[in-house]
């Protein structure tokens, strides 16, 4: 409105009539362009001089007039301020537009010395806006360009910022190899010893990178150095990243003491995130809480974390947080046995995930749909997909346990047994990653269904460290309830009835407490099967009661596959 008032006072009605009458004439076009620039110049100068509140709260308005007046050097700081203001309130789409305009203005700066510095600053700004909006691939590209520019300018501070931001985007995109490591080590070598903040940030990220590729010795070395430096500096940002590193690779099982320690750690991470008062650390902290709660069977904590994460993602337009929260809601629906709603949520999450994480979203979606279809007795629909994944990655064994389970469930015992044998030849050697526990769980079911004692003891020892936990994949992908069910099945194959009974009792108690109804029904069925095999006094009646409860749940939730297993066994 203020701009319109200024325009009306600066431009006469005669000038507008003159413009429209002669708009086709090139000479007059040039004249009009000159006049238009002059008008925008007057508007910009007037806003800055007479309306400072507008210039402060709406810098993009003044910046646009400076751009139209062909004054990019004056427009640039205002576009940058506008982008930073948008980022501060998580208006990420708006921040991207403003940062693009800032980059355009920087590119038009005539000073050859100042231009590269401004291009570097705006590239960093653009990368941050893209990453915050969930556009991770373009964000990484922007940070790489910024790193190259900073290297050419010998700007160690900006190089460290660009590299750290690039690594953060790669982490969010679930891309783990040595691409970040080389850049981070270069940045660490460039950082002055006096710049403790930059060094602690870089070391904590190097520790994370080495953790994710399985080089635990290097990870420990960098993490110890980062911890020591962080304590000296009282650096909340670096402290947060060091604490979070503890959650990046799953533990191989957990003692009661370790559970207590990690619960304290989760609280520390949440406090550190609150201290930073930034959206991304808050989202990361909530993800840690959700993962820990799922593994511990703490349904209230899991529900709260997913709800808070969804709210944070929506409120701040953080698409990658929305993706995590959405597939977290799908996981909760699977725990409830609401498979129709779980499928809708998984589909919606996949749509978001494709925008933010590309093909990295396939794995989460694939595991969730595999779980849903298996309970619905529709595994034949996903078998071709799993076979294609297996064929496309013949040297990667990650999908083979799932395919063995599909074959087993569909009645193809021979190929299922062959795959189990092939995997056993590796010593069941799986990386300590987000899929480890469910991989072992899948193989345990195959072994139990085939009643193959040859491999049961080895699998039992690998699953046993999870005995106080649930079987959970990644950050809110799937949770299969208490590990006790799988341990009980393996102990049944081994004929160790007392151990099996103890594990099934644990599984039933935990699954009931966390409201994991499908997995409770499966635990009851497996327990009943064991009791029928043991055949002690009272086992038949106990087995009948357990199967009745399992069938009631299977009927209520539409668990077709379990219904088929129970059919005829209650009579």
Structure description:
The chain is mostly helical and 571 residues long. It contains 30 helices and two strands. It has helices spanning 2-10, 13-21, 26-50, 52-57, 59-68, 72-88, 92-107, 114-132, 136-153, 156-172, 179-190, 196-212, 216-233, 236-245, 256-276, 279-296, 299-315, 319-336, 339-357, 360-375, 379-392, 400-409, 413-424, 436-450, 453-463, 484-493, 497-513, 517-534, 539-557, 560-566, and strands spanning 470-473, 478-482. Strands 1-2 form a two-stranded antiparallel ribbon. α6 packs parallel to α8 and α8 (114-132) packs antiparallel against α9. The longest helix is centred in the N-terminal third of the chain and has 25 residues, at 26-50. It is elongated and about 100 Å long. The model has no long low-confidence stretch (mean pLDDT 88).
Topology:
Elements: H1 2-10, H2 13-21, H3 26-50, H4 52-57, H5 59-68, H6 72-88, H7 92-107, H8 114-132, H9 136-153, H10 156-172, H11 179-190, H12 196-212, H13 216-233, H14 236-245, H15 256-276, H16 279-296, H17 299-315, H18 319-336, H19 339-357, H20 360-375, H21 379-392, H22 400-409, H23 413-424, H24 436-450, H25 453-463, E1 470-473, E2 478-482, H26 484-493, H27 497-513, H28 517-534, H29 539-557, H30 560-566
Antiparallel strand pairs: 1-2
Helix pairs in contact: 1-3, 3-5, 5-6, 6-7, 6-8, 7-8, 8-9, 8-10, 9-10, 10-11, 10-12, 11-12, 12-13, 12-14, 13-14, 14-15, 15-16, 16-17, 17-18, 18-19, 18-20, 19-20, 21-22, 22-23, 22-24, 23-24, 24-25, 24-26, 25-26, 26-27, 26-28, 27-28, 28-29, 29-30
In whole angstroms, the N-to-C terminal distance is 81 Å
Basic shape: elongated
What is the number of helical segments per DSSP (H or I, 4+ residues)? 30
Profile the largest sheet. Answer: 2 strands, antiparallel
Q: Rg from C-alpha positions?
A: 30 Å
Overall residue-averaged pLDDT value = 88
Low-pLDDT residue intervals, each spanning 5 or more residues? none
Measured as a percent range, the helix fraction is over 70%
* Helix/sheet category: mainly alpha
Counting DSSP E segments of at least 2 residues, the number of strands comes to 2
